[in-house]
Design a protein that fits this description.
By secondary structure, this protein is α/β, with parallel strands linked by helices. The chain is 44% helix and 10% strand. It has an eight-stranded parallel sheet with strand order 3-10-9-8-7-6-5-4. Strands 1-2 form a two-stranded antiparallel ribbon. Helix 12 packs across helix 13 and helix 14 packs across helix 15. It binds glyoxylic acid (GLV). The site of glyoxylic acid has 5 residues, from loops.
Length: 379
Amino acid sequence: MKTMTCIEDLRQAARRKVPRAFFDYAESGSYSEQTLNANRADLERIRLRQRVLSDVSHRTTKTAILGEPAALPLVLAPIGLCGMQHGDGEILACRAAQAAGIPFTLSTMSICSIEDVAAAVDKPFWFQLYVMRDRGFIRALIERAAAAKCSALVLTVDLQVLGQRHRDIKNGLSVPPELRINNLIDIATKPAWAASVLRGKRKTFGNIAGHIRGMENVNTLSVWIAGQFDPALNWKDVEWIKSLWPGKLILKGILDVEDARIAAKAGAAALVVSNHGGRQLDGAPSSIAMLPPIVEAVGSDIEIMFDGGIRSGQDVFRALALGARACLSGRAYVYGLGAGGEAGVARAIEIIRNELDVTMALTGVNSIAEIDRGTVNAV
Ligand code: GLV
């Protein structure tokens, strides 16, 4: 792992090791990928102020996320199908996050179930919720997350219908992989992946398979979503979820000032400014473009987190400078997972932490709280 010096190295390694359908699944955006590309391009445009001779010998990346101490302002984002990037991928990523002192978020569409992860790690993790038509199932899922002592519930609000990702259709993405000839040839060249996934606890959607009647043999994410996700989801449901969930609620997928105002009044502990990594509304603005107006409108009422294009510590710094309290990152650690399992995720976090630390030193900043608008050039 020592020769992996940046997230792009992990990405290249994952591309070699993980079957194409799963690598592409994580990598893709929806439709023409305009929003996916804007997320990165707009972050890269933000220039950092080089400051010198200001004694940065006492700097620390330590912070608090939702009132809990964290080693750096980073959260591993909920990502579906992690257990198909590497066997037991959710458990490995959660262990790496906890060892590094940051939160891990388990996706509803994970391979390992809530209970699998809870049994395999020492500390609480966050659980991400998708709301399905079967409200009895959703109630049970929330109860399962509470029983597993999850420390926050992350309600994703921007994916009740799926933005099409062309490559998933072309690759015939399914869990486990469909045994088509091109998949078999691909898997045959990735024996370490095959061994890890075969050894893994589960080969399907651990939280939901067997829990929803009539969906026993469904193995395609898009079919799950079209058949089960409830497009009627609205702000009243947020109240209902709040009444069921005893802990902190985070609303993920807010990209508009108007929605942010409603979210702040809905009693959530935090919101995540997000366009789902450019995987949903293609043509939407980048997340970083919407962060400043949302911070200005509701930043004093609700904790604001950010995701969308984070690939480095410099990117974390940029989002913090524009008002985020913490960043979620998905692809960066999924590349690590595909490249090297738990050690790969640990490396991804370490890379971002070290980059953030050096960036703080070279911008003359000693603490996370000092990273403000004044640390970047006017945007
Ligand atoms: C689901 O969460 C996805 O973005 O694929």
